[in-house]
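2.7 Reproducibility. Because tokenized structures are sensitive to small changes in the input, we list the exact sequence used for LUD domain-containing protein, including any N-terminal residues retained from the expression construct. No trimming or masking was applied before prediction.
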Amino acid sequence: MSAREQILERARRALADVTATEPELDVPVHRPPPRPGRPAAQVLDLFAEQVADYRAVVERTTKTGVAGAIVGALHGRKPRAGAGPLRILVPPGFPAVYLPAGIEPVADGPDVPIAVLDRCDGVVTTAAIGIAETGTIVLDHGPGQGRRAATLVPDLHVCVIRAEQVVADVPDAVAALEPHRPQTWISGPSATSDIELDRVEGVHGPRTLHVLIVTDDA
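Resulting structure tokens (single pass, no recycling of outputs):
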């Protein structure tokens, strides 16, 4: 008798007096009642507070004020090239009406090398979802959001998110997102700490995250 047959024979003897039972199919499942929704203004206030708590810059603006707000986000930054306008990476599908004058837009795409991204002074994107409870921005890399490298290489990330895209918490975000799409969850600018707990920013992503919450024009 082979080793395999010996093992199977021992298993049969051990289970000889065990009575097979049908699995219980109708197991009651406890489902919590739906959570009451929070007022939209309260959700936006919490989102702004939580994002700022991560040392990101948060600003509220209107659709017609986005371009001016982007100019404000770029104020004081010096071009990496040393002269000329700031080179800002622009993903495909980013609304052209949001782009301010006085910058050098750099069109991104899958064939643009990382070295080009590294020479950009910043990147502007839209977002898929904002989560108020955690201050998190979720990109699913659809139109205007760019590929993952686009938001990791430049030193500044200006993210434009509409007020209606902000949800209360993570369950609401998961329910709204399309599960088959790639996702990047961003909670504040890139930061890490060593064993001495010295905070270092910009190690594996942008040092500065500037979030523009856009509401409808009055």
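The two ends are 85 Å apart (CA to CA).
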